[in-house]
């Protein structure tokens, strides 16, 4: 039964990431213009490969329509990837599945790069994506989902979790900069003033960093992962509550639901690792072997 839960969680993690991103791109777009409208970067390419001058390219309605169409196409790729992830072991066509999931992962990486560019090269934003990338990569590496329970896989997933939580922690502590929406969400949900919200976020950031270390300590990893399950799901649903308005219920849910969906993995992936560790420990008990792996 544990193995079925583990396989189910892998698929659900990948499904929620891709579904949330499909929702985002279809209705709210993506930050592709951070690169596609970068004059210093693209002028040589635009003027060298087309008859457009930079000014014509940047103001062209046709180019703008093309970017919007490309964004919708990427949304469709994410939707296909979500469906394939959910029914991964029910669908044949191995090569097709791998191509769709790989394309979706590539688009997600490009979105991350565009976010970094859009935020003045804040590279920690890439590390925030590591949890969202982990489950789809696990699907690609384990076609039949029969080799996912090994210490190597667990450690790899822990690294992905730690990278995301460390990035969040550094932002929350304000060591790089403190995102304004972090403060706004905390004030709106907890009813704190700005200084109290900043102090709360600093403590939460410290805990993120501490737990990112403790998940690698065998005797303490269980407790660290439990915290990460709780905090990952809490911060995901915080987007829903922070953006909710009873006067504009439908539009407020529409505007924040996708943020919740693709961030569910921030709590679900630690839960997946917790179950995998539990299963590995149980399988060690009947033997005197030091380690059991599934390679």
Which band does the percent of strand residues land in? under 5%
SS-based class = mainly alpha
Radius of gyration based on Cα positions: 21 Å
Mean pLDDT: 89
* Helix and strand pattern: HHHHHHHHHHHHHH
Q: Note the overall shape.
A: globular
Head-to-tail CA distance between termini = 21 Å
Q: What does the main sheet amount to? A: none
Strand elements, count: 0
Describe the protein's architecture and organization.
The protein has 14 helices and no strands. By secondary structure, it is mostly helical. The protein has two domains: 1-124, no CATH class; 149-295. Helix 1 packs antiparallel against helix 5 (61-86). The longest helix is centred in the N-terminal third of the chain and has 27 residues, at 2-28.
In short:
With 295 residues, this protein is mainly α.
Defining traits:
295 residues, mainly alpha, 2 domains, 14 helices, globular, disordered C terminus
Write the layout of secondary structure elements.
Elements: H1 2-28, H2 33-36, H3 39-49, H4 54-59, H5 61-86, H6 94-118, H7 124-127, H8 130-141, H9 151-173, H10 180-190, H11 194-214, H12 221-242, H13 249-263, H14 265-284
Helix pairs in contact: 1-5, 1-8, 1-13, 1-14, 5-6, 6-8, 8-9, 9-11, 9-14, 10-11, 10-12, 11-12, 12-13, 12-14
């Amino acid at each position: 039964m544990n193995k079925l839960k583990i396989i189910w969680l892998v698929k659900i993690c990948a499904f929620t990431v891709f579904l949330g991103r499909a929702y985002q791109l279809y209705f709210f777009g993506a930050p592709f213009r951070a690169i596609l409208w970068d004059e210093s970067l693209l002028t040589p390419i635009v003027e060298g490969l087309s008859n457009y001058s930079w000014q014509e390219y940047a103001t062209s309605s046709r180019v703008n329509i093309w970017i919007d169409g490309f964004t919708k196409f990427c949304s469709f790729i994410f939707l296909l990837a979500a469906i394939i992830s959910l029914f991964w072991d029910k669908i044949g066509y191995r090569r097709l599945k791998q191509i769709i999931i790989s394309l979706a992962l590539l688009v997600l990486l490009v979105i991350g790069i565009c976010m970094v560019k859009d935020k003045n090269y804040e590279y920690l934003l890439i590390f925030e994506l590591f949890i969202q990338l982990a489950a789809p990569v696990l699907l690609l590496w384990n076609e039949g989902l029969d080799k996912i329970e090994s210490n190597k896989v667990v450690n790899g997933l822990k690294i992905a979790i730690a990278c995301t939580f460390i990035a969040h922690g550094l932002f929350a502590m304000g060591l790089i900069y403190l995102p304004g929406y972090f403060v706004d969400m905390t004030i709106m949900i907890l009813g704190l003033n700005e200084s109290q919200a900043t102090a709360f976020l600093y403590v939460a950031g410290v805990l993120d960093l501490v737990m990112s270390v403790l998940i690698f300590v065998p005797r303490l990893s269980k407790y660290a992962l439990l915290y990460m399950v709780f905090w990952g799901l809490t911060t995901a649903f915080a987007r829903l509550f922070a953006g909710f308005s009873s006067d504009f219920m439908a539009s407020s849910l529409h505007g924040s639901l996708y943020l919740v969906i693709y961030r569910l993995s921030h709590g679900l992936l630690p839960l997946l690792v917790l179950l995998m560790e539990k299963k590995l420990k149980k399988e060690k008990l009947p033997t005197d072997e030091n380690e059991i792996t599934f390679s």
